[in-house]
Amino acid sequence: MKLFLMTLIAAKVAFSTPEPAIDEVIAKFDQAGIAWNAIDQVNWPEYPYKPEVEFRIMHSETEIYLQYHVKENGARATYDYDYRSRPYTDDCVEFFMIPSDRDNSYFNLEMNCIGHGTFDYGPLGGPRFHCDDRILSQIRRHSTLGSKAFGMIEGPQEWTITIAIPKRLYAQADLDLTEFSGRTVKANFYKCGDDTAVTHFLSWNPVGTPKPSFHQPDYFGDVYFE
Q1: What is 7-210+220-225's CATH number?
Q2: Which residues of the chain form beta strands (DSSP E)?
Q3: What confidence tier does 3 reach under pLDDT thresholds 50, 70, 90?
């Protein structure tokens, strides 16, 4: 089943350095007036819980920047390391993208609410490469919940995570991929928590599978990079 594909624009911004400090990135989102987009699609009725989740995206000549804002009941953070972690079992935000016009490999970035997670790529149904800490350490991130695991906390929680991804990392799948500007790519944005107090699976673009699965390039929306 094909569903309506959403579209958004990733504004292009400029910094004085190729890899600005994360505080500069956080400030730029507001200074540039980057709009928020809702992650509010409940695709599977058996998982109706719907925390308030929004994200925004921008890019520079060298990097892609993401910011997620979440309001939910309780929070779970059990992983405070990257490689071989399972961020999707915690309160987690995700960004899946097919960056190349010549290769159908998609990248999935998954970060828990304290900014630890995984970055993998490969084709649907084929072997997937799991990036190690040498790659993951190049992805800068900051969470308002800090970076230390705290297990489970109860009650209303609100947090923001900001992520800076060097574009060069996407060339792992396509060595000729050097520029995003002026291109439209396929992508989706998610919020999940497999082992949280209330299991949930939300997406930006609807997913039309009978069971929860985010690894569905057919249901990616369009992101145009200015």
Answers
A1: 2.60.40.1190
A2: 7-12, 37-38, 41-42, 52-59, 63-77, 92-98, 106-112, 117-122, 129-130, 140-143, 151-166, 184-193, 200-203, 221-225
A3: low
